[in-house]
Amino acid sequence: MVPDDPATPICSAKGCRAAAVWVLAWNNPKLHTPERRKTWLACDEHREHLSQFLGVRGFLKDVVRLEEWEPADEAPHPGGPAAGQGEGSAADR
Questions:
Q1: Which of 5, 62, 64, 66 is in Cβ range 3.0-4.6 Å of 25 for a Cys bridge?
Q2: CA pair distance 59, 80, nearest whole angstrom
């Protein structure tokens, strides 16, 4: 399902165009200060997959429903691991 509103946040999983329901907050300790949080978005279908991808690398810090997320300095990032983001692109550093 493609969200009708282009401003609607979408899932970060490759090829997924579903509306995001979850924010996955993460941090790569080799690149980021401990308090920094990068974010990926997930629909219900891809939440577990994206969480596992970050979790096995020790990056996952928190999973929060989108409506409960209170971002600090960063907006949720639309690029997920399969969208070429992997452990973090140059923009994530």
A1: 62
A2: 13
CA angle 78, 81, 84 (to 5 degrees): 80
Task: Specify if 85 maps to a domain.
Answer: no
Q: How many independent structural domains does the chain possess? A: 1
pLDDT digits (tens), the chain, 93 positions = 455 676 889 999 999 999 999 999 999 999 999 999 999 999 999 999 999 999 999 999 999 999 999 877 555 555 565 444 443 433 343
pTM value? Answer: 0.72
- Alpha-carbon distance of 22 to 90, in angstroms, equals 24
